[in-house]
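User: I want to check something. If I give you two sequences, will you return the structure for each one separately, not as a complex?

Assistant: Yes, each is folded on its own. Here is the first sequence with its structure:
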Amino acid sequence: MNSIFVSKHKDEILNRIDSLSANSQPIWGKMDVAQMLSHCSSFQDIAMGYSFPKRGWLGIVVGGFAKPIFYNDKPAPKNMSTIPTILIADKREFEIEREKLKQKIITFQKNGPEKCTSHPHPFFGKLTPEQWGKGIYKHLDHHLRQFGV
Protein backbone atom coordinates (compact mmCIF):
# COMPACT_ATOMS: atom_id res chain seq x y z
CA MET A 1 0.00 0.00 0.00
CA ASN A 2 1.23 3.48 -0.84
CA SER A 3 1.91 5.91 1.98
CA ILE A 4 1.97 9.69 1.96
CA PHE A 5 5.17 9.44 4.03
CA VAL A 6 7.01 8.08 0.94
CA SER A 7 8.30 10.97 -1.20
CA LYS A 8 7.40 9.42 -4.56
CA HIS A 9 3.83 8.75 -3.36
CA LYS A 10 3.51 12.30 -2.03
CA ASP A 11 4.83 13.67 -5.34
CA GLU A 12 2.35 11.55 -7.30
CA ILE A 13 -0.54 12.92 -5.22
CA LEU A 14 0.69 16.51 -5.63
CA ASN A 15 0.97 16.06 -9.42
CA ARG A 16 -2.58 14.71 -9.53
CA ILE A 17 -3.81 17.69 -7.49
CA ASP A 18 -2.03 19.99 -9.96
CA SER A 19 -3.90 18.35 -12.83
CA LEU A 20 -7.25 19.45 -11.37
CA SER A 21 -8.90 22.65 -12.56
CA ALA A 22 -11.69 24.82 -11.19
CA ASN A 23 -13.89 23.19 -13.85
CA SER A 24 -13.13 19.58 -12.86
CA GLN A 25 -16.37 17.65 -12.41
CA PRO A 26 -16.98 14.75 -10.02
CA ILE A 27 -17.69 11.28 -11.36
CA TRP A 28 -19.66 10.61 -8.16
CA GLY A 29 -20.58 12.49 -5.00
CA LYS A 30 -22.00 15.91 -4.22
CA MET A 31 -18.94 18.08 -3.54
CA ASP A 32 -17.51 20.30 -6.23
CA VAL A 33 -13.73 20.31 -6.74
CA ALA A 34 -13.01 23.21 -4.35
CA GLN A 35 -15.17 21.63 -1.63
CA MET A 36 -13.35 18.31 -2.11
CA LEU A 37 -9.98 20.00 -1.72
CA SER A 38 -11.19 21.74 1.44
CA HIS A 39 -12.55 18.43 2.77
CA CYS A 40 -9.18 16.74 2.18
CA SER A 41 -7.42 19.66 3.84
CA SER A 42 -9.69 19.33 6.88
CA PHE A 43 -8.89 15.61 7.01
CA GLN A 44 -5.17 16.49 6.97
CA ASP A 45 -5.79 18.68 10.02
CA ILE A 46 -7.07 15.63 11.91
CA ALA A 47 -4.00 13.54 11.00
CA MET A 48 -1.69 16.41 11.91
CA GLY A 49 -3.30 16.87 15.32
CA TYR A 50 -4.79 20.31 14.55
CA SER A 51 -8.42 19.18 14.74
CA PHE A 52 -10.05 16.71 17.11
CA PRO A 53 -13.54 15.67 16.00
CA LYS A 54 -15.42 13.78 18.67
CA ARG A 55 -15.83 10.03 18.21
CA GLY A 56 -19.40 9.05 17.41
CA TRP A 57 -21.13 6.08 18.98
CA LEU A 58 -20.97 4.06 15.74
CA GLY A 59 -17.22 4.49 15.52
CA ILE A 60 -16.80 3.51 19.15
CA VAL A 61 -18.87 0.35 18.60
CA VAL A 62 -17.61 -0.84 15.18
CA GLY A 63 -14.72 1.45 14.18
CA GLY A 64 -12.02 -0.82 15.55
CA PHE A 65 -13.32 -3.78 13.57
CA ALA A 66 -13.61 -1.74 10.38
CA LYS A 67 -10.22 -0.02 10.82
CA PRO A 68 -8.35 -2.04 8.14
CA ILE A 69 -10.52 -0.52 5.38
CA PHE A 70 -8.78 2.79 6.15
CA TYR A 71 -5.32 1.54 5.25
CA ASN A 72 -5.65 -1.67 3.22
CA ASP A 73 -4.87 -2.03 -0.50
CA LYS A 74 -8.49 -1.89 -1.69
CA PRO A 75 -9.74 1.46 -3.05
CA ALA A 76 -12.28 3.22 -0.84
CA PRO A 77 -15.87 2.67 -1.99
CA LYS A 78 -17.68 5.46 -3.83
CA ASN A 79 -20.11 7.58 -1.81
CA MET A 80 -18.69 6.41 1.52
CA SER A 81 -19.94 8.44 4.48
CA THR A 82 -17.63 11.02 6.01
CA ILE A 83 -16.89 12.66 9.32
CA PRO A 84 -19.71 15.21 9.74
CA THR A 85 -17.41 18.05 10.85
CA ILE A 86 -15.41 17.88 7.60
CA LEU A 87 -18.34 17.64 5.21
CA ILE A 88 -17.95 20.82 3.16
CA ALA A 89 -21.17 22.26 1.73
CA ASP A 90 -20.41 25.98 1.36
CA LYS A 91 -18.70 27.69 -1.58
CA ARG A 92 -14.89 27.57 -1.59
CA GLU A 93 -12.21 29.19 -3.77
CA PHE A 94 -10.46 26.54 -5.89
CA GLU A 95 -6.93 28.02 -6.07
CA ILE A 96 -6.83 28.80 -2.34
CA GLU A 97 -8.05 25.33 -1.39
CA ARG A 98 -5.66 23.61 -3.78
CA GLU A 99 -2.63 25.46 -2.44
CA LYS A 100 -3.71 24.96 1.18
CA LEU A 101 -4.05 21.20 0.69
CA LYS A 102 -0.73 20.90 -1.12
CA GLN A 103 1.09 22.72 1.67
CA LYS A 104 -0.51 20.51 4.33
CA ILE A 105 0.50 17.35 2.44
CA ILE A 106 4.08 18.62 2.07
CA THR A 107 4.26 19.53 5.77
CA PHE A 108 2.74 16.22 6.88
CA GLN A 109 5.21 14.21 4.78
CA LYS A 110 8.17 16.38 5.84
CA ASN A 111 7.28 16.10 9.54
CA GLY A 112 7.24 12.33 9.20
CA PRO A 113 5.51 9.64 11.24
CA GLU A 114 6.86 10.94 14.54
CA LYS A 115 4.75 14.13 14.24
CA CYS A 116 1.57 12.28 13.31
CA THR A 117 -1.30 12.70 15.75
CA SER A 118 -1.78 10.21 18.56
CA HIS A 119 -5.39 11.35 18.91
CA PRO A 120 -7.83 8.67 17.70
CA HIS A 121 -9.49 8.86 14.29
CA PRO A 122 -13.12 9.92 14.85
CA PHE A 123 -14.44 6.64 13.42
CA PHE A 124 -11.62 4.09 13.33
CA GLY A 125 -10.04 4.96 16.68
CA LYS A 126 -6.35 4.64 17.51
CA LEU A 127 -4.09 4.42 14.46
CA THR A 128 -0.34 4.02 14.19
CA PRO A 129 1.59 6.62 12.17
CA GLU A 130 2.10 3.93 9.49
CA GLN A 131 -1.69 3.42 9.30
CA TRP A 132 -2.24 7.18 9.11
CA GLY A 133 0.30 7.46 6.27
CA LYS A 134 -1.43 4.75 4.26
CA GLY A 135 -4.89 6.08 5.13
CA ILE A 136 -4.04 9.63 4.11
CA TYR A 137 -2.76 8.38 0.76
CA LYS A 138 -5.87 6.23 0.28
CA HIS A 139 -8.21 9.11 1.21
CA LEU A 140 -6.52 11.49 -1.22
CA ASP A 141 -6.44 8.84 -3.96
CA HIS A 142 -10.17 8.21 -3.44
CA HIS A 143 -11.06 11.87 -3.91
CA LEU A 144 -8.71 12.39 -6.83
CA ARG A 145 -10.26 9.37 -8.57
CA GLN A 146 -13.63 10.97 -7.79
CA PHE A 147 -12.53 13.81 -10.09
CA GLY A 148 -10.93 11.59 -12.72
CA VAL A 149 -7.27 12.20 -11.89
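And separately, the second sequence with its own structure:
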Amino acid sequence: MAQLRLTSPVPGVVRPLTAVPDPVFAEQMVGPGLAVEPDRTGRQDVLAPCDGVVGALHPHAFALELDDGRAVLVHVGIDTVTLAGQGFELHVERGRRVRAGDRVLTWSPVDVAAAGLSTMCPVVALQAEAVDVTLLVPEGERVEAGRPVLGWTAG
Protein backbone atom coordinates (compact mmCIF):
# COMPACT_ATOMS: atom_id res chain seq x y z
CA MET A 1 0.00 0.00 0.00
CA ALA A 2 1.23 3.50 -0.76
CA GLN A 3 2.68 5.58 2.01
CA LEU A 4 0.41 8.29 3.37
CA ARG A 5 2.15 11.64 3.72
CA LEU A 6 1.00 13.82 6.60
CA THR A 7 1.71 17.53 6.38
CA SER A 8 2.35 20.01 9.15
CA PRO A 9 -0.89 21.66 10.29
CA VAL A 10 0.94 24.81 11.45
CA PRO A 11 4.21 26.64 10.74
CA GLY A 12 6.86 25.97 13.39
CA VAL A 13 9.64 23.71 14.58
CA VAL A 14 9.39 19.91 14.48
CA ARG A 15 9.74 18.26 17.91
CA PRO A 16 9.55 14.63 19.05
CA LEU A 17 6.37 13.53 20.80
CA THR A 18 8.53 12.85 23.86
CA ALA A 19 8.93 16.65 24.19
CA VAL A 20 5.16 17.15 24.60
CA PRO A 21 4.25 17.93 28.24
CA ASP A 22 1.44 15.35 28.34
CA PRO A 23 2.08 11.62 28.92
CA VAL A 24 -0.74 10.58 26.56
CA PHE A 25 1.33 12.01 23.69
CA ALA A 26 4.86 11.72 25.12
CA GLU A 27 4.41 7.99 25.78
CA GLN A 28 2.61 7.49 22.44
CA MET A 29 -0.45 5.98 24.16
CA VAL A 30 -2.71 6.97 21.25
CA GLY A 31 -0.11 6.40 18.54
CA PRO A 32 3.19 7.59 17.06
CA GLY A 33 3.79 10.92 15.37
CA LEU A 34 5.48 14.21 16.07
CA ALA A 35 4.74 17.64 17.45
CA VAL A 36 5.16 21.06 15.91
CA GLU A 37 6.06 23.96 18.17
CA PRO A 38 4.18 26.69 16.32
CA ASP A 39 5.39 30.14 15.44
CA ARG A 40 4.15 32.59 18.08
CA THR A 41 1.70 34.56 16.00
CA GLY A 42 -1.49 36.33 17.01
CA ARG A 43 -3.78 34.43 14.63
CA GLN A 44 -2.86 31.22 12.91
CA ASP A 45 -4.75 28.79 10.69
CA VAL A 46 -4.52 25.07 11.45
CA LEU A 47 -4.60 22.99 8.27
CA ALA A 48 -5.72 19.43 7.60
CA PRO A 49 -2.60 17.20 7.43
CA CYS A 50 -4.20 14.86 4.86
CA ASP A 51 -7.43 14.12 3.03
CA GLY A 52 -10.19 12.67 5.17
CA VAL A 53 -13.53 13.10 6.86
CA VAL A 54 -13.70 15.17 10.03
CA GLY A 55 -14.57 12.68 12.78
CA ALA A 56 -13.99 14.00 16.28
CA LEU A 57 -14.08 17.79 16.35
CA HIS A 58 -13.41 20.13 19.25
CA PRO A 59 -12.25 23.77 19.22
CA HIS A 60 -8.75 22.59 20.26
CA ALA A 61 -8.44 19.24 18.42
CA PHE A 62 -9.74 17.20 15.50
CA ALA A 63 -9.41 13.74 14.04
CA LEU A 64 -9.60 12.88 10.37
CA GLU A 65 -10.95 9.50 9.30
CA LEU A 66 -9.27 8.19 6.15
CA ASP A 67 -10.98 6.11 3.49
CA ASP A 68 -8.78 3.09 4.32
CA GLY A 69 -9.83 3.02 7.98
CA ARG A 70 -6.86 4.87 9.44
CA ALA A 71 -7.25 8.07 11.48
CA VAL A 72 -5.07 11.07 12.23
CA LEU A 73 -5.31 13.33 15.29
CA VAL A 74 -4.22 16.96 15.45
CA HIS A 75 -4.21 18.46 18.95
CA VAL A 76 -3.77 22.25 19.08
CA GLY A 77 -1.80 23.05 22.21
CA ILE A 78 -1.75 21.01 25.42
CA ASP A 79 -4.51 21.22 28.06
CA THR A 80 -6.23 23.72 25.75
CA VAL A 81 -9.53 21.96 26.51
CA THR A 82 -9.46 24.08 29.70
CA LEU A 83 -9.99 27.20 27.54
CA ALA A 84 -13.48 25.88 26.66
CA GLY A 85 -13.10 26.98 23.04
CA GLN A 86 -12.18 30.57 23.87
CA GLY A 87 -9.78 31.90 21.23
CA PHE A 88 -10.47 29.05 18.80
CA GLU A 89 -12.60 29.39 15.67
CA LEU A 90 -13.80 26.30 13.79
CA HIS A 91 -14.13 26.46 9.99
CA VAL A 92 -15.52 22.95 9.39
CA GLU A 93 -18.16 20.71 10.87
CA ARG A 94 -18.13 17.04 11.80
CA GLY A 95 -18.68 14.73 8.85
CA ARG A 96 -17.23 17.14 6.29
CA ARG A 97 -14.65 15.84 3.83
CA VAL A 98 -11.47 17.92 3.80
CA ARG A 99 -8.36 17.86 1.66
CA ALA A 100 -4.77 18.22 2.83
CA GLY A 101 -4.13 21.92 3.36
CA ASP A 102 -7.75 22.91 4.02
CA ARG A 103 -8.23 25.32 6.92
CA VAL A 104 -9.85 23.49 9.85
CA LEU A 105 -9.59 26.06 12.62
CA THR A 106 -7.92 29.31 13.63
CA TRP A 107 -6.24 30.00 16.98
CA SER A 108 -3.74 32.26 18.68
CA PRO A 109 -0.56 30.60 19.97
CA VAL A 110 0.26 33.91 21.69
CA ASP A 111 -2.98 33.77 23.71
CA VAL A 112 -2.51 30.09 24.59
CA ALA A 113 1.04 30.78 25.80
CA ALA A 114 -0.23 33.81 27.76
CA ALA A 115 -2.70 31.49 29.51
CA GLY A 116 0.31 29.46 30.70
CA LEU A 117 -0.36 26.49 28.42
CA SER A 118 1.96 24.68 26.01
CA THR A 119 1.43 25.57 22.35
CA MET A 120 2.85 22.24 21.10
CA CYS A 121 0.69 20.68 18.36
CA PRO A 122 0.91 16.88 18.27
CA VAL A 123 0.13 15.15 14.97
CA VAL A 124 -0.60 11.49 15.70
CA ALA A 125 -1.19 8.43 13.53
CA LEU A 126 -3.93 6.97 15.73
CA GLN A 127 -3.41 3.35 16.80
CA ALA A 128 -0.53 2.96 14.33
CA GLU A 129 2.54 0.85 14.92
CA ALA A 130 5.63 3.00 15.47
CA VAL A 131 7.54 1.02 12.80
CA ASP A 132 5.00 2.14 10.18
CA VAL A 133 5.53 5.87 10.82
CA THR A 134 8.64 7.74 9.69
CA LEU A 135 9.78 11.31 10.12
CA LEU A 136 10.25 13.08 6.79
CA VAL A 137 11.85 16.14 8.42
CA PRO A 138 14.60 16.14 11.07
CA GLU A 139 13.61 17.15 14.59
CA GLY A 140 14.47 20.77 15.25
CA GLU A 141 13.85 21.85 11.66
CA ARG A 142 11.43 24.70 10.95
CA VAL A 143 8.58 23.86 8.58
CA GLU A 144 5.82 25.79 6.89
CA ALA A 145 2.22 24.62 7.25
CA GLY A 146 1.46 22.13 4.49
CA ARG A 147 4.97 20.64 4.28
CA PRO A 148 5.09 16.83 4.46
CA VAL A 149 6.47 15.83 7.88
CA LEU A 150 5.39 12.21 8.45
CA GLY A 151 5.11 9.12 6.31
CA TRP A 152 2.68 6.37 7.35
CA THR A 153 2.74 2.97 5.68
CA ALA A 154 -0.28 0.79 6.40
CA GLY A 155 0.77 -2.36 8.24
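Because they were folded independently, the notes below concern the second chain alone. The first strand starts at residue 4 and ends at 7. The radius of gyration is 14 Å.
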